[in-house]
Amino acid sequence: MVDAHFAEPRLAQVYDPLDPDRCDLDAYAAIVGEFGARRVLDVGCGTGTFACLLAARGVTVVAVDPAGASLEVARAKPAADRVHWVRGRVTDLPPIKVDLATMTGNVAQVFLADDEWAATLRAVHAALRRGGRLVFETREPGARAWLAWNRERTYRRVAIPGVGDVESWVDLLDVGGGLVSFRTTFVFAADGARLTSESTLRFRHREEVAAALAAAGYAVDEVRGAPDRPGLELVFVARRAD
To answer: Which pTM does this prediction carry?
Structure first.
């Protein structure tokens, strides 16, 4: 089931204006260049910011996401016509071969069950050429980022052209068993509409992630710190091992 934040058209339309700073994507763009990747699979592409950024640079991109509303936003962006958009999950992809696959943002944490996570890793593995790489970030559980997921720390009011002021904040709902659940609330000043989106993320320790990758046929070449969130997130660079 897709979170309303990505599946509800009205929320998908304000996703980018509410989070315009995507400096986190700079590190991924640099990695694409570092490995000379010319064909990239963007798993959980959302509103397509990263896919379009790469496409504008001449990279062939397959971007997959189950949220139709987010993909509608993505298709309206510059260079979107150069991206092959797929609505669905990576496990539904037809046979393709890419040099590199990415999961930016929180995508790697939305796979809650171990079997779902394993199936996702295997599907990406099948899409990678021999020696191709999977790059993704995941939050470090020890940093306990969820302690800041409350209204006091997350409240903001943003004026969005054509929409009006939108208030938003996050409330923590539950923490346990490696799962963290939270609710994001949005209030539209134009008509007073109040929409909510509930989400759950899986926090895996570094050793858990490495073991899952090995079981799916990867060799972990490197684990880097996320430059935009030092000490809070880890960036895994895993290579398809044949």
So the answer is: 0.95
208/197 same-domain check = no
Range of the domain at 8: 4-141+203-240
Q: What is the pLDDT along the chain (242 residues), one digit of tens a residue?
A: 678 788 899 999 999 999 888 888 999 999 999 999 999 999 999 999 999 999 999 999 999 999 999 999 999 999 999 999 999 999 999 999 999 999 998 899 999 999 999 999 999 999 999 999 999 999 999 999 999 999 999 999 999 999 999 999 999 999 999 999 999 999 999 999 999 999 999 999 999 999 999 999 999 999 999 887 888 999 999 999 98
Q: What is the DSSP string of the chain?
A: ---HHHHSHHHHHHHHHHS---THHHHHHHHHHHTT-SEEEEET-TT-HHHHHHHHTT-EEEEEES-HHHHHHHHTSTTGGGEEEEES-GGGPPS--EEEEEE-TTGGGS--SHHHHHHHHHHHHHHEEEEEEEEEEEE-GGG-GGGG-SHHHH-EEEEETTTEEEEEEEEEEEEETTEEEEEEEEEETTT--EEEEEEEEE---HHHHHHHHHHTTEEEEEEEE-TTSTTTEEEEEEEE--
In CATH, what number is assigned to the domain containing residue 28? 3.40.50.150
Residues 117 and 37 in one domain: yes
Residues 82, 106 within the same domain: yes
